């Protein structure tokens, strides 16, 4: 292979250093394909902050900036298609410097940047149209770079030592950027252009484009990422990697057209797996469609089936807890997602103990990473088990999936994994003096807090001090009790009556302990946690709403908790705060101590409905919908927990993932609670209990809802003062109005 020496930069005045001061927009746009995702600004530029092209948790492209004569173009619009398949930016020129004596005025060159991901390849087309009355010569430059930072470095981690960055080079008309990591993996990004630039260096491509009036001209580029394990003993593996690099798809119109077709097809297939949701309110329908598109974007096809990655940019990988809760949110509409999640988690269940990875036999994975730092052991997250709730939630999801689908074959397949999970829960409950499920990290490298609020300061006493471990979180007891009750039901179905009796006793013990040890009569609420001494952390937090979501507590007390969650202590007008106003460490701008998380609000809404306050669930659905309108029709991972003010929008949390799977799934859990829908596959029956709709929605349709081998469409309409369902299909529907 011939290596071309880099060309010296042209010193024409038209090609001056990039203008960095004019950043198009703080808004970011994302695309994803498998384990690859891209984050860019509204101009389509990548500038190497928290954006980039990422493959397997490594940033393989940290800069991709388009300029004209060294100046950023003016932004007209930037957007991602409604199915999340394609990013498009519309731009126009600022006044261009004279080339050959002619000066091009502002706003006569229209630029369309279109970008799509296909596997590990980014394809982009740049179409320039001259709407001026005179020919124009446009000096266009594309600057690029790759820092090959590990995702944890992008997030702020520092490293004592890094791998070797190879000098970038121009090779056979393409730019090759290469890095060899400490994990002995060579990561390469190859950038190709069609047509060839007038000048190509290891950091920039320059064009002088002569465009006639009313004429368009196109440039295509592709960025192909490849990896090669240098330490792999298999020579064939090295040959395959080399062939993959040499046979990388060339940039050009056919390549991007094929990638566009495939991306749209992939998203259509995702939508077909989900029941249809439509309403009389176009904005509400748009929110629902965007949420489904976000879930489709984040869902990755693994060998075990579809799996929703947690969120972009920080968590575009398999998480246990996040995927389980997302599957529970979508279970009534899309049970195939739960099937894929259950099979993946069972396949990666811990089979040995490891303090570094917080792994114990039977435990369900919390997080997995494929990055360099994970491979070298600099962080424990290659396969990390430091979550106390993933294991009971795994069992809960399996039981809910069985009720929803009647798929006993999958339960039989999962039964050994379910038994191991239940044994892990039981062992930990037996170690606790009160039979509760608690946690304490096994290594200083792991997470200090291992519930869903896993930041360092999220669990504390009413005087603000942090508790000694082990810590028993209140919501985890709901998950554990439900897991034991699930195992009891499944064991009875399998004829294991003695096991069922033991599981039932364990479930009841946890219920009793929660009532005896977590209830705060003076506050009419449940405390957030017990510390290692059995002292209650007497803090009012949204965790108690999860008790209601799983029907754990006494009716009267549950109703009291529901009233508190509906009060201004918790309800901001946009959703439920994670921590009640006025509590120690309350901060509406914090990650877990006063912010609003849509999935947490959804859990609370489910709890309100189960304890008789379906109207409260409707109000929360309305609040989340109105928040989503302010966030461009999609809910972020979280936002600030300030009280809603007239005429103001919800306040964004600056580094929230968007999209985030369990935020995208939140409206469907709340909608299920509002409609009072329960699906019983064993009886081939859909039950509807006193459905309600938010204001502004006259009708809502759940179409092509699969129940066993059949399907049904249900339309909910306002009639007088009630919401009445009408049914089309051959599935039995029983409604209580």
Automatic annotation (TrEMBL):
Gene3D superfamilies assigned: 1.50.10.10
Domain Mannosylglycerate hydrolase MGH1-like glycoside hydrolase as annotated: residue spans: 322-628
Family annotation (InterPro entries): 6-hairpin_glycosidase_sf, 6hp_glycosidase-like_sf, GDE_N_bis, MGH1-like_GH
GO terms under biological process: carbohydrate metabolic process
Putative glycogen debranching enzyme N-terminal domain boundaries: 31-221
Record's protein name: Amylo-alpha-1,6-glucosidase family
Organism per entry: Caballeronia choica
């Amino acid at each position: 292979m011939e290596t071309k020496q880099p060309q010296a930069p042209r010193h024409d005045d038209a090609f001056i250093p990039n203008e960095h001061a004019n950043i198009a927009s703080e808004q970011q746009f994302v695309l994803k394909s498998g384990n690859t995702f891209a984050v860019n600004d509204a101009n389509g530029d990548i500038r190497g902050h928290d954006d980039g092209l990422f493959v397997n948790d490594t940033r393989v492209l940290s800069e991709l900036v388009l300029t004209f004569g060294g100046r950023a173009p003016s932004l007209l619009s930037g957007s991602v298609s409604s199915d999340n398949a394609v990013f498009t930016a519309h731009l126009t020129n600022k006044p261009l410097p004279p080339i050959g004596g002619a000066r091009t005025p502002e706003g006569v060159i229209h630029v369309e940047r279109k970008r799509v991901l296909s596997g590990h390849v980014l394809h982009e087309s740049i179409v320039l149209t001259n709407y001026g009355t005179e020919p124009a010569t446009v000096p266009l430059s594309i600057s690029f770079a790759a820092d090959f930072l590990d995702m944890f470095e992008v997030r702020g981690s520092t490293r004592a030592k890094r791998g070797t960055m190879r000098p970038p080079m121009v090779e056979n008309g393409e730019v090759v950027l290469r890095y060899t990591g400490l994990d002995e993996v060579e990561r390469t990004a190859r950038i190709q252009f069609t047509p060839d630039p007038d000048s190509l260096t290891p950091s920039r491509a320059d064009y002088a484009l002569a465009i006639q009036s009313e004429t368009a001209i196109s440039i295509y580029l592709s960025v192909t990422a490849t990896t090669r394990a240098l330490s792999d003993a298999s020579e064939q593996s090295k040959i395959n990697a080399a062939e993959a690099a040499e046979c990388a798809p060339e940039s050009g119109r056919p390549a991007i057209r094929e990638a566009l077709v495939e991306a749209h097809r992939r998203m259509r297939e995702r939508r077909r797996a989900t029941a249809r949701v439509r309403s009389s309110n176009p904005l509400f329908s748009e929110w629902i469609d965007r949420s489904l598109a976000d879930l489709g974007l984040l869902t990755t096809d693994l060998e075990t089936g579809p799996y929703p990655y947690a969120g972009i940019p920080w968590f575009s990988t398999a998480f246990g807890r996040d995927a389980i809760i997302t599957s529970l949110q979508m279970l009534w509409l899309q049970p195939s997602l739960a099937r894929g999640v259950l099979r993946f988690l069972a396949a990666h269940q811990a089979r040995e103990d490891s303090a570094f990875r917080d792994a114990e036999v039977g435990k369900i994975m919390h997080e997995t990473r494929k990055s360099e730092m994970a491979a070298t052991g600099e962080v424990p997250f290659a396969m990390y088990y430091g979550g106390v709730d993933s294991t009971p939630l795994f069992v809960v999801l399996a039981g809910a999936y069985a009720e929803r689908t009647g798929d006993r074959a999958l339960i039989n397949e999962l039964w050994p994994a379910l038994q191991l999970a239940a044994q892990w829960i039981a062992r930990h409950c037996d170690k606790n003096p009160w039979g509760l499920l608690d946690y304490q990290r096994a290594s200083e490298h792991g997470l200090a807090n291992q519930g869903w609020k896993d930041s360092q300061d999220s669990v504390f006493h009413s005087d603000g001090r942090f508790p000694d471990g082990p810590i028993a979180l209140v919501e985890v007891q709901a998950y554990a009790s439900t897991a034991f009750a699930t195992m009891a039901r499944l064991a009875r179905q399998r004829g294991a009556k003695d096991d069922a009796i033991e599981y039932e006793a364990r479930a009841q013990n946890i219920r009793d302990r929660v009532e005896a040890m977590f209830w705060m009569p003076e506050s009419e609420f449940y405390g957030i946690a017990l510390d290692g001494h059995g002292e209650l952390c007497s803090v009012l937090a949204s965790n108690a709403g999860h008790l209601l979501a799983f029907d754990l507590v006494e009716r009267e007390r549950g109703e009291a908790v529901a009233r508190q969650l509906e009060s201004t202590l918790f309800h901001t007008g946009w959703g439920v705060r994670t921590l009640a106003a006025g509590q120690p460490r309350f901060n509406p701008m914090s990650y877990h101590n006063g912010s609003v998380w849509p999935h947490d609000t959804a859990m609370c809404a489910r709890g309100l409905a189960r304890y008789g306050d379906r109207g409260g669930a409707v109000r929360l659905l309305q609040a989340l919908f109105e928040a989503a309108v302010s966030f461009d029709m999609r809910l972020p991972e979280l936002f600030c927990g300030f009280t809603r003010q007239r005429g103001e929008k919800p306040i964004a949390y600056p580094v929230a993932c968007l999209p985030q799977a369990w935020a995208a799934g939140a409206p469907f859990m709340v909608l299920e609670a509002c409609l009072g829908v329960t699906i019983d596959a064993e009886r081939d029956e859909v039950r509807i209990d006193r459905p309600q709709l938010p204001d502004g929605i006259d009708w809502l349709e759940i179409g092509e809802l699969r129940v066993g081998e059949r399907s049904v469409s249900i339309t909910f309409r306002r009639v007088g003062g009630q919401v009445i369902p009408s049914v089309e299909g051959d599935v039995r529907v029983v409604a209580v109005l």
